[in-house]
Design goal:
It contains 15 helices and six strands. It is of the alpha/beta class and about 375 residues long. It folds into two domains: about 160 residues, no CATH class; about 160 residues, Rossmann fold. It has a six-stranded mixed sheet with strand order 3-2-1-4-6-5, with helices on both faces. A hairpin with a 3-residue loop joins strand 5 and strand 6. Helix 12 packs across helix 13. The two termini are about 15 Å apart. The structure holds guanosine-5'-triphosphate (GTP). Guanosine-5'-triphosphate binds next to helix 10. This is GTPase. Pfam families: MMR_HSR1.
């Protein structure tokens, strides 16, 4: 079954960035060579820069030109995941399970029987980490649509990879932008089409037709309420840039033939997968009290340094700090010393918020398994 895709295929800055920086094929992890090749003494002041400006004196670009010589499509995501597993093992575990989530989980299970179709919203940057491990058993054979929201925050190549993956699985997928509304009409049409059988059965029993009921569920902060608000063109559900804003389940009507359930974000009681937990923290999809900013930013630096669409060079260009091998912790400390009077929390916050704002280009932190 072909994947269902929303209309707009964006040429993201990440794709452009990757296109601009692909020089040649070379070592698999060129980043390791950079720290020994560069000395920091040539950087007089720290300055945040964006775009393609390669440095204050124009020479740094050549020193770092070898950091991105890997074909993004050849990148070994499995190896990155394996490293991420080891990096996160030593850290304090990230756990977040506020009381309202336990309550929601229970209520959602009760409401499931009312739903004709379940719309599972995920963060397009981390579709695997925003997939609840128990979702399959809760839903059983229920009709399901997977929504990859925040499509604006990934590259075209990321999007194509996920679209192909879901097409292979035969899963209905819609890419959406909950801020601007892209994909929402497609989603409502698909929900109605998939549930058309409900009213055929009702008619056969002599019952009047009723609106199709679609439950919108997913991790915190992935954009569930925003999608509903965009569809309704009204702010019916609370939405804000932090996890845990929606606290109550709420059915709202869209036209005469669709009802949507907005629900608070759910997350496993115990996050066994700490790589996923760190990615949730990086993407701001988990309460910020649950993690240490410096640790999470250090891991983010290590991930970004490895990603072909970002690499050491983008980090160095932005902060005018070289990365020592793959040591994100030292990078955060150096940034703290240079810009924030030694305050690593502030330095970490800057790196995380730069990533969340797309200052390194729009890149996904996950790609689907190859087969
Ligand atoms: N860039 C971008 N931001 C989005 C998108 N969708 C939603 N947002 C933003 O993400 C934040 C969270 O959106 P919400 O709709 O509150 O998320 P939620 O899933 O309902 O969150 P909970 O209440 O925690 O369950 C808001 O600041 C939205 O403006 C999108 O597609 N792209």
């Amino acid at each position: 079954m072909a994947a269902q895709l929303s209309g707009v295929w964006l040429n993201s800055p990440a794709a452009t960035l990757a296109g601009n920086v692909l020089h040649s094929r070379g070592s698999r992890f060129p980043s390791a060579t950079v720290s020994t090749a560069h000395t920091s003494t040539s950087t007089p002041t720290i300055q945040i820069v964006g775009g393609k400006n390669l440095g204050q004196n124009g020479t740094e670009s050549s020193k770092f030109s070898s950091t991105l010589d890997i074909d993004p499509e050849e990148f070994d995501w499995v190896e990155l995941e394996a490293d991420l597993y080891h990096w996160t093992k030593a850290l304090r575990p990230v756990q977040w399970y506020p009381g309202h989530i336990a309550k929601t989980e229970k209520e959602l299970k009760d409401q499931l029987k009312l739903m004709d179709v379940v719309i599972e919203v995920r963060d397009a940057r981390i579709p695997m980490s925003t997939s609840h491990p128990q979702m399959g058993s809760w839903l059983g054979n229920r009709k399901r649509i997977v929504v990859l929201n925040r499509e604006d925050m990934i590259s075209t190549a990321d999007r194509n990879a996920w679209a192909n993956y879901y097409a292979r699985l035969g899963t209905k997928v819609v890419f959406s932008n909950g801020q601007l509304g892209m994909g929402t009409m497609k989603l409502s049409r698909l929900a109605k089409d998939m549930s058309g059988g409900v009213n055929i059965k009702r008619k056969a029993k002599g019952l009047l037709p009723r609106p199709v009921r679609a439950g919108i569920i997913g991790y915190p902060n992935v954009g569930k309420s925003s999608l509903i608000n965009r569809l309704l063109k009204r702010r019916m559900c609370p939405a804000a840039p932090r996890p845990g804003v929606t606290r109550e389940l709420k059915w709202v009507r869209f036209g005469k033939d669709l009802e949507l359930l907005d629900s608070p974000g759910i997350i496993p009681m115990r996050m066994n997968d700490q790589s996923a937990a760190i990615k949730l923290a990086i993407c701001d999809d988990i309460g910020e009290r649950s993690y240490d900013f410096s640790e999470v930013a250090a891991i983010l630096v290590q991930i970004l340094a490895r990603l072909p669409a970002v690499g050491n060079k983008a980090l160095c260009d932005r902060y005018k700090i070289e990365i020592d091998g793959r040591d994100g912790r030292t990078f955060v400390q150096k940034l703290a010393l240079r810009m924030f009077n030694g305050d690593t929390h502030q330095a970490a916050f800057r790196i995380l918020s730069d990533f969340r704002k797309g200052k390194f280009g729009w890149v996904a932190l996950e790609r689907p398994p190859k087969s």
